[in-house]
Amino acid sequence: MPAERVLVGYVDDRRGADAVALAACAASEPGTELVLGHIRIDAWPDVPGPGNVDAEWERFLDDQAREVLAHGARRAEECGVEPAEQRVFTRRGSGRGLAALAGKVKARVVVIGSAPGGPRTGISLGSTADQLLHGSSVPVMIAPKGFADRGVRTFDRVTCAYLRVPESTPAVAAAAAIAARRKIPLRLLTFAVDSPVRGKGSAVLAEQQLRRLVDALETDLAAAAKEAAAGSTLTKRDVITQVAEGRDAAHAVHAAGWTEGDLLVCASSTSGPLRRVFMGDMSMKILRTIPCPAMVLPRTIK
């Protein structure tokens, strides 16, 4: 039986280090191997130069790309994983290149680091993630900033962000499959955020609304947990549910509690901008706040 392949998109900076550390966790599953990929951007598209200038420049870029992969391979070995293959792929746009390369190497997941800029912790999505979520046929795993410094070598729990919408069905199934293969717990998690209520008795009314919301969410989670156990080798004891409450998204995410080896699995929204992953306006707040990696299922996965 051929090995499952994890493709990590490597660049020679902190993003690449975080991505390799996360890919090593993903490749720690038996029967899984790591493919190290680097996307080399087209140098001079459709503009031929004099003599051998173009060929020399292309050779320089190829040598530089191979050197980048050699650094990535050393990082992977430091994480306890030896890459089974190293690939340089040329394409305009790193995300589009990784999506195409994933098909060529038959990867089951693509791993990248967070985009530069934004908060110093959590996950930041940039153009690479946008292109991958739009064009990849396999899930995209994103490392939070600083993940390489944590020394995490494997996952100890899978958390699935859940909302009772059709997009959540494949996310729950994927999360349950990962948890079952690794023999680790599955948590189905949703968030209840206070709604602002004004006027006389507003505090009491807001609390009543929140309690009704929590009751409805707990009912949805219980049904989803039952389906997750029935559709996998997990038992009912292996699946836990949680409604995390807070006055805003950041507080709700913090209240959920996270382990060092947590992996968040979520679905892509079928509408709205590409960066609005899973729960609309809350999506970016959740990704910016969580301390763990996230695996996002692209829209093409049903």
UniProtKB/TrEMBL annotation:
Highest taxon, organism lineage: Bacteria
InterPro entries: Rossmann-like_a/b/a_fold, UspA
CDD domains with a match to the protein in the record: USP-like
SUPFAM superfamilies reported in the protein's UniProt record: Adenine nucleotide alpha hydrolases-like
Pfam families, A to Z: Usp
Assigned protein family: Belongs to the universal stress protein A family.
Protein name: Nucleotide-binding universal stress UspA family protein
Species in which this protein is naturally found: Actinocorallia herbida
